[in-house]
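Subject: Sanity check before I submit

Could someone independently write out the structure tokens for this chain? I want to compare against mine line by line before I put it in a report. The sequence has 222 residues.
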Amino acid sequence: MRDKPPRFASGFTAEAVTLTLGEIMLKIGIVAIILLSVGVAGAAYKMGFILNPSPVTPPPEKSVLEFSMKDIDGKDVKLDAYKGKVLMIVNTASKCGLTPQYEGLQALYDKFKDKGFVVLGFPANNFMGQEPGTEKEIKEFCTLNYKVSFPMFAKLSVKGTDQHPFYTFLTNKESNPGFDGDISWNFEKFLTDKNGKVIARFSPKTKPDDPKIVEAIEKALK
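---
Independent answer below. Compare away.
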């Protein structure tokens, strides 16, 4: 004869208690997985890995030179001050594998600045949180490590719902046809002619001393 399962004072059998505990643990596990998934998704969203759409409507400005920006010291800078200059616009980061490109950008600036070429650096924290510092910290980092002397600007967002209008202009198909599309990573480069019109775009992995970049700058300076 099969033994009957023991009963507790509450009236539950051992099997029932075991089943109840199993159900509780299963529910706890499901809740933990959901919370973990939400946390990972939130971090991925914040870091630009999952859908975080940029604005679809371009800003009213018709040229890069129509924007007014904050420099890294918090001062207002009207970009029309650079009319007549060839500009390279770069979103930068201090803790990225591409951060050493600062050195190449500075070398480009040193080589061509007397001919009318300027690099404009825009720190952004959109990718993997690789630009977490304040403007003061960013300025100190660039100056001490790479002797950066080209103009640096205040931190901004280059993609997503909080994208700065300046980068909406650069990446929107209506305002910048032919060179539009989301910023893919730190150190994406836009080259403009002397009237502020974008004439070239280079991927983050294209180094500042790449012959394609040098040739494009030389051509624009003529």
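---
OP: Matches mine. For the report I'm noting this point. DSSP finds five helices and six strands in the chain.
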